[in-house]
UniProtKB/TrEMBL annotation:
PANTHER family: ASPARTATE-GLUTAMATE RACEMASE FAMILY, GLUTAMATE RACEMASE
Designated name of the protein: Aspartate racemase
GO molecular function (one): amino-acid racemase activity
Species name: Aneurinibacillus migulanus (Bacillus migulanus)
KW Ribonucleoprotein (keyword) present: no
């Protein structure tokens, strides 16, 4: 019996759409039928969510996320995923406020990095994520070093995400610039630590291993739904 998936989305719209597509595509690739797991999506107010992050209103942030997940619980979700990297900065705090299992995007990514035998990786994402330490804390358990871009590159990546990707603007010029930034660091792999970044960067165009957090998270969710975790 498949478990009903709950996606806390809207953070942003662009990646929420990709989560839905990725989970259903992965299912069809494996089974070649249409018995998809049921999915509930609760789309948050992206600007309010981002304001809470940027203003470091942590308690309100946690409560807003938990409230969104409670709505998913009431709708029948049997477990949840947060469709973004940044709210995983308060993953443990949120877990303590909800009543269903929640799958971590960071753990899913760390497990893949371990499979690839990576020792040092670059974390890209919004500034909130790059300037937090939740990725470093989880990856340390796997003996993997996580470094972040310099401040200038952080500003640039943050701008790419908020000014382009979250509103589905994807350009070859920006893609080239992002690849140039990645290749300027001495690392063995790169974490696409924002669920919009896979719209821009894929393994077939990057010379080092790409940790596509959205795809890894979606696969973990599907596996859990199908009792394959």
């Amino acid at each position: 019996m498949k478990k009903t998936i709950g996606i806390l989305g809207g953070i942003s719209l662009a990646s929420t759409i990709q989560y839905y597509k990725k989970i259903t595509d992965l299912y069809y690739e494996q089974y070649n039928d249409y018995y998809y797991p049921e999915i509930r999506i609760n789309s948050l107010d992206f600007q309010h969510f981002t304001d809470l992050e940027n203003e470091h209103r942590t308690e309100e942030y946690i409560d807003y996320i938990a409230k969104g997940i409670h709505a998913l619980e009431k709708s029948g979700a049997e477990f949840v995923i947060m469709g973004a990297n940044s709210p995983h900065s308060v993953f443990n705090e949120v877990v303590n406020k909800i009543n269903v299992p929640m799958i971590s995007i960071v753990e899913s990514t760390a497990k893949r990095a371990t499979e690839l035998k990576l020792d040092k990786v670059l974390l890209t994402g919004i500034k909130y994520t790059m300037q937090s330490n939740f990725y470093q804390e989880v990856f340390k358990k796997y003996n993997i070093d996580v470094i972040t871009p310099n401040e200038t590159h952080q500003d640039e990546i943050n701008s790419i995400i908020f000014d382009e990707l979250v509103i589905n603007i994807v350009s070859d010029q920006t893609r080239k610039r992002m690849l140039d930034i990645i290749q300027s660091y001495d690392v063995e792999g790169v974490i696409l630590g924002c669920t919009e970044l896979p719209l821009l960067i894929a393994q077939n165009i990057c010379p080092i291993p790409v940790l596509d957090t959205l795809s890894l998270h979606a696969k973990a969710a599907l596996d859990f739904s199908l009792n394959k975790e």
